[in-house]
Design goal:
28% strand; 119 residues; alpha+beta; DUF4830 domain-containing protein
C-alpha cells in the first residue's frame, strides 16, 4: 500500500513539474532582428518558423546567466542588434554584451544567435 501511495505522489510531482516547465517557456509567433548602424535605415530580418524561434529563445536564455552579469557595461560604437519576440521580449546586443531587462550580460555565442536568422 505504501508503495502505491509513493508511486502516485511521484507521478503527481512529475506531472506538476512538467506543467510548470511548459508554463515558464512562453511560445512566440515571430522574432525580429533589427540591425542599427550598418546603413542609414535599420535592416530587419524576421522568422516565423516555430522550431527556429524555440531554438532562438533557448540560445538567448543560455546566454543570460547571473554569473555573467556585468556591472560596468559601457555601450561600444559600431553595430547594435535588437531582437524582439512578439513585441514582448527585447534583447539588445552591443559588442560582446547582451542587454535584457536593463541588465548587461557577457555574450559568448553571438554567432549562434545570428545564424538562426540566416538559415
Amino acid at each position: 500500500m505504501k508503495r502505491k501511495i509513493i508511486a502516485i505522489l511521484v507521478l503527481v510531482i512529475v506531472v506538476i513539474g512538467g506543467i510548470s516547465l511548459k508554463m515558464k517557456q512562453p511560445s512566440y509567433q515571430y522574432a525580429t532582428l533589427t540591425i542599427y548602424g550598418k546603413q542609414e535605415k535599420p535592416i530587419q530580418y524576421s522568422i516565423h518558423n516555430q522550431d527556429k524561434i524555440d531554438l532562438l529563445v533557448k540560445t538567448l536564455n543560455q546566454s543570460i546567466h547571473f554569473q555573467n552579469v556585468q556591472k560596468d557595461y559601457e555601450k561600444t560604437k559600431g553595430l547594435t542588434y535588437q531582437i524582439e519576440l512578439d513585441d514582448q521580449q527585447v534583447y539588445i546586443i552591443n559588442g560582446n554584451y547582451i542587454i535584457k531587462d536593463q541588465k548587461a550580460y557577457l555574450l559568448e555565442n553571438k554567432k549562434d544567435i545570428f545564424n538562426i536568422f540566416d538559415e
